[in-house]
Amino acid sequence: MMAIHETEEEIRQHEEELKNNFDMSKFDLTGKVAVITGGNTGLGQGYAIAMAKAGADIFIPTFGTLEWDNTRELIESVGQKVEFMDVDLTKPGIPKKVIDTAIEKMGHIDILVNNAGMIKRNPLLESKDEDWDRVIAINLTAVYHMSLEACKVFAKQKYGKIINICSMLSFQGGKYIPSYTASKHGVAGLTKAFASEMGAYNVTVNAIAPGYIKTENTAPIRADDTRNDEILSRIPMGHWAEPYELMGPAVFLASDASAYINGAIIPVDGGYLVR
Question: Is 180 a catalytic residue?
Answer without folding.
Answer: yes
